[in-house]
Design brief:
mainly alpha, 5 helices
């Protein structure tokens, strides 16, 4: 158990700046959504993708943002694109 705690603390210390930057961008994204700033919300999501890559958080919020901005039909158009990209990164 002690080794796991040491590993977790070390990992957090080494990645503290990246984690802090992600949290800052995530909060900016949330504020953009709440203020109905669609352009900024999409831009921030793109920046998060560029800086941190794909994650479950990113995919969920990209789909939610597409649905919020353009409706359910637009969200459906993202799913094949995301599956194709996901399959490339896993192989």
């Amino acid at each position: 158990m002690a080794n796991e705690i040491i590993w977790a603390v070390t990992t957090l210390l080494l990645n503290g700046k990246r984690i802090k930057n992600f949290v800052r961008l995530k909060e900016l994204f949330e504020l953009a959504i709440l203020s109905n700033d669609k352009v900024n919300a999409t831009s921030i999501l793109s920046e998060i993708n560029d800086d941190f890559g794909w994650s479950v958080w990113y995919m969920q919020n990209m789909l939610a943002n597409a649905q919020y901005q353009d409706g359910v039909e637009e969200k459906g158009g993202w799913q094949p694109f995301m599956m194709k990209k996901y399959m490339r990164t896993c192989s």
